[in-house]
Specification:
292 residues; Arc Repressor Mutant, subunit A; D-Maltodextrin-Binding Protein, domain 2; 3 domains; 12 strands; globular
C-alpha cells in the first residue's frame, strides 16, 4: 500500500466512476482497476461493489475511506513539517467557495498570503455554497468560504470575515406585471425560495413565527437563480445582500422593508481543527483577518 494508491482509492470513492477517477489520478481506467484490486487483496476485503453499470462503496470501503483520508492528512502534515525545517513553506492547499464569494472575498484573502508564501499553491474550486461545509468535513477541501450555520458541526474551526444581511426582494415591474406595493407578506404573495440551506431554514422559521403559510411559486438551487426569477416578476425572494450586490440584475429588483428582519449571514472561512496542525493550513489560517 502506498500514498498514490490511497489517493486513487479516494478519487474513486468520491466519484464512484472509474472514468472520472482515472482521469483525476492521471492513469487509465484499467490501471486504476488493477490498483484497486491490489489494494483489496492487501486489506483482504472488497472495498467496492461494482458491475458494468455502477460502483458503490461497501461497508468496509466506508471504514477504509476514513483511514485513507486520515493517512493522507497525516502524510501531508509530516511532509510539510519536514519542508518547514528547510526554512520556506511550499506545497498546496485547496479552497471551495461560490462564484459570488470568489468575486467578493478572494482578492483580499489571497493577495497578502501569496506575497508572504509564494511557493504555496492555492487550488480553488467553485460550486453551490450549500455544499461548502461537507466539502471540508469530507476532507476534499482544506478551506471553504461559507455562511456560519446556527450550529457549527463538531471538529470545524470558523473565522468570520463579513456580515451579509438576508433581504426580501421583489420585482420592480411588479409581480406578474401587476404593480403592487408590498410592505408585509401574507398567503397571497408568491415566493421563490431556496430548496435547502441556511437561508431556507431561516425563512421557514420566520414564516412560522409570523404564522404565515407561504404561497411558494418555486423552490430553486442557488441564490443567483432566485434573483433571476424575482427579476422576471414571478414573486418575492430572499437572498443574502452579498449575492444581490454582485448580481447584474440588481437594478431590476427592489429591497423590501419588511419587519422583523431576518438574521444576517455571518460569512467566514472554515477548516477542520485537526488540519491546523499542518503548517501550510496553519500559515493560511494565521494570516486571515476578521473584518467583524
Amino acid at each position: 500500500m502506498d500514498i498514490k494508491q490511497l489517493r486513487q482509492f479516494i478519487h474513486l470513492a468520491d466519484s464512484l466512476h472509474f472514468g472520472r477517477a482515472s482521469e483525476a489520478s492521471h492513469i487509465s481506467p484499467s490501471a486504476l482497476s488493477r490498483s484497486i484490486k491490489q489494494l483489496e487483496d492487501e486489506v483482504g476485503v472488497s472495498l467496492f461493489d461494482r458491475d458494468n453499470r455502477s460502483v458503490a462503496l461497501t461497508a468496509e470501503g466506508n471504514i477504509f475511506l476514513s483511514y485513507a483520508r486520515e493517512s493522507l492528512t497525516q502524510w501531508n502534515t509530516l511532509k510539510t513539517q519536514l519542508m518547514e525545517r528547510t526554512g520556506e513553506l511550499q506545497g498546496q492547499i485547496s479552497m471551495y467557495c461560490s462564484v459570488t464569494a470568489s468575486y467578493s472575498f478572494l482578492f483580499a484573502i489571497l493577495s497578502e498570503f501569496r506575497s508572504n508564501y509564494p511557493k504555496i499553491e492555492i487550488k480553488l474550486h467553485t460550486g453551490d455554497p450549500e455544499h461548502a461545509i461537507n466539502q471540508v468535513l469530507s476532507g476534499n477541501e482544506d478551506f471553504a468560504i461559507t455562511a456560519k450555520p446556527d450550529s457549527l458541526p463538531t471538529g470545524l474551526a470558523f473565522k468570520p470575515i463579513a456580515l451579509s444581511p438576508l433581504l426580501f426582494i421583489a420585482p420592480k415591474q411588479g409581480i406578474e406585471g401587476k404593480p403592487r406595493s408590498i410592505n408585509k407578506l401574507d398567503e397571497t404573495v408568491p415566493m421563490i425560495l431556496s430548496e435547502e440551506g441556511i437561508a431556507r431554514k431561516r425563512i421557514d422559521r420566520w414564516l412560522k413565527e409570523q404564522t404565515i403559510k407561504p404561497l411558494i411559486y418555486a423552490q430553486v438551487a442557488g441564490n443567483e437563480a432566485i434573483v433571476s426569477m424575482v427579476s422576471l416578476g414571478f414573486g418575492v425572494g430572499v437572498v443574502p445582500q452579498i449575492v444581490l450586490d454582485n448580481s447584474p440584475l440588481a437594478n431590476t429588483v427592489d429591497i423590501l422593508d419588511i419587519s422583523p428582519k431576518l438574521k444576517a449571514y455571518e460569512v467566514g472561512i472554515i477548516t477542520l481543527e485537526k488540519k491546523l496542525k499542518n503548517p501550510l493550513v496553519s500559515a493560511f489560517w494565521a494570516q486571515l483577518k476578521s473584518s467583524l
